[in-house]
Amino acid sequence: MKLLAIVGSPRLKGNTNYLVEQALKEAEKLGVQTAKIVLSQYQVNPCLGHDDCASFDSCRQKDDAGWILDKFCEADGVILATPVYWYNVSAQLKAFIDRNYFLYKHDQKYKARAVGVIVVAEKEGIEDTLHTLKQFIDGSFNVGEDRIFIACGYANKLGEVKNNLPLVEEARKLGRQMVESLKQGS
Ligand SMILES: Cc1cc2nc3c(=O)[nH]c(=O)nc-3n(C[C@H](O)[C@H](O)[C@H](O)COP(=O)(O)O)c2cc1C
After folding, report:
1. Residue 114 Cα, ligand 1 centroid: separation in angstroms?
2. Is the pTM of this model over 0.90?
3. d(Cα 170, Cα 21) in Å, to the nearest integer?
4. I want to staple 77 with a disulfide (CB 3.0 to 4.6 A). Which of 8, 114, 161, 170 is the partner?
5. Quick count: other Cβ atoms within 10 Å of Cβ 120?
6. 154: how many CB neighbours lie within 10 A of its CB?
7. CA 53, CA 27: separation in Å to the nearest integer?
8. How far is CA 44 from CA 97, 134, 144, in A?
9. Beta strands, E only, the chain
10. pLDDT value for 185
11. Distance between CA atoms of 126 and 147, rounded to whole angstroms?
């Protein structure tokens, strides 16, 4: 069983990354194989918008999105994690979400049967960000509300989230719940 986290924060020692690590550690304790991809460490270009994906066998963009999307499609569970940037997901995560359009146009199925969402803001914009992520999840994954797990809350300075113990616990719980959900089968 594989759980893959896609991280939209460029701050490796930042709040989003910390919460993702907490969630993945809990999942590992329950025997699940985990992986984390921090998008800023790779080249994931924005969608070119030609809207002609269906006529090509592979995306016109030649960057890291191809193999990341392969892993994303094959994972049993995925976590989408982002800081709030201007009331929405970070540009890194938005570029990745847009690049899923190629798969959408090829009617590609995603294997994941549980989806986690981790969102951190300084003070506002979480609801708007969750709305964007929910739209993407609903349009891409065949999962009901009971298989979408959310951990969101507030922190700002680098690593400050470590002091937000309820949020840290929420992230750990998200990791456990995703594994439990996956073990229940589809
Ligand atoms: C470009 C940018 C835009 C931001 N926009 C918002 C925002 O709209 N609302 C908010 O509450 N915090 C906003 N923040 C603050 C971050 O969400 C906050 O610092 C968060 O903890 C960063 O997470 P990270 O440590 O994982 O990078 C913004 C930060 C940056 C750099």
Report:
1. 26
2. yes
3. 12
4. 114
5. 28
6. 16
7. 35
8. 10, 21, 29
9. 2-7, 33-38, 77-83, 114-121, 148-154
10. 75
11. 20
| Residue 8 Cβ < 6 Å to ligand 1 | no
Compute the distance between CA of residue 10 and CA of residue 24 in angstroms, rounded to an integer: 18
Residue among 91, 68, 63, 89 nearest 78 (CA): 68
**Ligand 1 atom closest to the CA of 154, numbered from 1:** 21
Q: 177, 149 in Cβ contact below 8 A?
A: yes
Q: What would the two tokens of residue 168 be?
A: 């840290």
Distance CA 21, CA 123 (A): 22
Has residue 62 got a pLDDT over 90?
yes
Atom of ligand 1 nearest to the CA of 18: 26
